[in-house]
Amino acid sequence: MPRNRALTDGEQPLGHPLGWIRAERGWTYQDVVDIVARRVGNMSARREKAWRWEHRGVVPDLETQQALASELGVPHALLSSSPWPGWLPVGDRTTARVAWTPQDCVAALDATAGAALHDRRGFVVAGPGSAAAAAQRWLALAPLAWPPPATVPTPVSTPAPLLVPVAGPLSGPLSGPVPVPVSVPSQRTGPSAGPGAAVPPTVLTALEERVPALHRMEAALGGGPVRAVADAELRLVTDLLARGPAARPGPAAADPWARRLFAVAGELACLAGRACFDTRHEAAAERYLSAALSAAHAAGDRPLGARVLAAMSLQYLSAGRPQEALAVARAARAGLAREAAGDGLVTDPARTAPGGDVPASVRHSSALLMARQARAHAVLGQADVSRRLLAAAGAILTPDARGNADHRADYCAEAAACELALGRAAAADHWLRRSLAALPEDRARDRAGTSVLRAVAALDLGAAERARELASEAGRAVEGVDSPRVRRALEALWERLHGRSERHGGGGGAAGRDLAMTAL
């Protein structure tokens, strides 16, 4: 069996690097201030100070930071290059490493499945620019070719690749990778059968058919109940890959089933990453999504890679890194453009509409990525660029997606997030109402998040009573889903309604924008 297999689900995430440091070393808040007082000598050792550093967004003074850095063995020079809390040592986060060969991809999946589920770091850990660099590398590489061996018959019925709509503002996280240890896969004893013999077509088909069902479960129940299930299935697929030639040096293309297994692994890793983002396990989400991007490349599946990057983009928006979110979304759109142009594609009639037209799924995914770019520009305060991109995306979606409720809902949610980021609460409410009207009932988590944002928009407009009514409706909607991300947004809304928004380090002007980046 592969390494790093844990047996139970992880604990609640630790949302601040200082919380991670304390948990790792067994420190209480009192221990933290005692350490500082001992080194500084002139500080009152009140535990409330450390609590405020971790929960109120209070930044300790330079002398205090230097004392903590000395205790943790961190060079003082790092305090200026990586401002608080970026310099706190919470694991390797310098450069994202995505595996680009089938063998390294299997090793990366092996290092991620099981282990990432228990990563309690509730904050983004990838170094600045690493996600954008990984996205550019993915874009620069042609999809891995998988020519079918002449000696192996093609199954009579092969399901089309799963083209789940791109992760929209409410349907998934959105994210960046963290360092993935790439190593030699575990040594297994006994005969090693390639997936061509060990995985019959019926089993592969069953694995592929599970993915849409898991997507529906995640949309209906939230990420809480689904992330462990997705991880368990990812472990199964990883084990199947590790038993075949794709895990060993040599021409992995000799295996007729490995490409489909890599595609399933990419879908499952992406789903696990989105579910971890929904439960606020941010570092775990990064790890899964990095492995998913690697698997998408190994599968030669550009639309899947674009969906993974869309998830990364959303996570970086939520983490307050809009420039990187924008770069990742641009790379994803560029990849889909190459897909549409036929650059480096593996022949697959299931992806090409009659007459060679670009499949609707590719057009819609590209349009939703354009809307994601519009949201990043809005967060950056670039209103004109944001509105031009949003209008262009709408022009692409409107003719084709008239009957597609999911695409309409996701587009309207992106438009609402743009308007909230630009401080236009009335326009945001218009789009939120349209999104709710289009959202299917089975996307309960997304409906709950949209309801929270409607109350936020009302409060930003100064309609406190209307905001309370909508907040009560949102509370009832949230009851049926396990989405800590949406619940946290609802809690922040209620604290604003009761005049306690200062706990989150923001004033009323930024509240709608900040909540839009987390609830959507």
Provide key terms for this protein.
520 residues, mainly alpha, 434 Repressor (Amino-terminal Domain), 22 helices, disordered N terminus
Describe this structure in words.
By secondary structure, the protein is an all-alpha fold. The protein has three domains: 17-81, Orthogonal Bundle (434 Repressor (Amino-terminal Domain)); 102-147 and 156-187 and 195-344, no CATH class; 400-519. Helix content is 60%, strand content 0%. The protein is built from 22 helices and no strands. α11 (258-278) packs antiparallel against α12, α13 (302-318) runs parallel beside α15 and α20 (464-478) packs antiparallel against α21. The longest helix has 21 residues, at 201-221. The radius of gyration is 23 Å and the shape is globular.
Short description:
This protein is mostly helical and 520 residues long.
Helix content: 55-70%
| Percent of sequence in beta strands | under 5%
Number of helices: 22
Counting structural domains, the number is 3
Overall mean confidence score, pLDDT: 79
Q: How large, in whole angstroms, is the Cα Rg?
A: 23 Å
Low-confidence stretches: 1-10, 147-197, 344-356, 501-509
Report on the biggest sheet. Answer: none
Summing up helix and strand content along with how strands pair, one would put the structural category as mainly alpha
N-to-C SSE series? HHHHHHHHHHHHHHHHHHHHHH
Instruction: Give the number of DSSP strands.
Output: 0
N- to C-terminal separation? 38 Å
Coarse morphology: globular
